[in-house]
Design a protein that fits this description.
The protein is mostly helical and about 120 residues long. The chain is built from 3 helices and no strands. It is globular, with a radius of gyration of 14 Å.
């Protein structure tokens, strides 16, 4: 994961993000929100530090960070929140699967949804 000898540092806490499974950037890549070429230059965050993304992961194996203040509630209407939770949770699960399966980075993203 390291782009240099220092590796990627979380832009929130400053500590290294040493594991793809801790990476907010890679969850966003799997979601299709970050292009492949940006993985090596985009700012990194631990999932625990990225409350804006982590609040949408709803899974028994994910321990959400403590949320206080304005970020504790979703700004989305209930149906949009449910859809975002499903999509972000699916991306988090997909990242876990691909890391353990050791598949190529280009195959990480979720399949694009077909529009009629």
């Amino acid at each position: 994961m390291a782009a240099c000898d220092e590796g990627y540092r979380c832009e929130i806490c400053g500590e290294p993000v040493t594991n793809l499974l801790e990476s907010s950037l890679y969850v966003r890549y799997v979601l299709g929100e970050v292009p492949l070429h940006a993985l090596f230059s985009a700012p990194e965050r631990h999932l625990r530090c990225d409350l804006e993304l982590a609040r949408y992961i709803v899974h028994e194996k994910f321990t959400p960070p403590a949320q206080v203040g304005p970020l504790s509630n979703s700004p989305l209407p209930p149906e949009e929140q449910r859809q975002r939770e499903q999509r972000v949770t699916a991306a988090w699960v997909r990242l876990r699967e691909v890391v353990h399966a050791r598949i190529p980075l280009t195959e990480y993203p979720l399949a694009s949804e077909q529009k009629p």
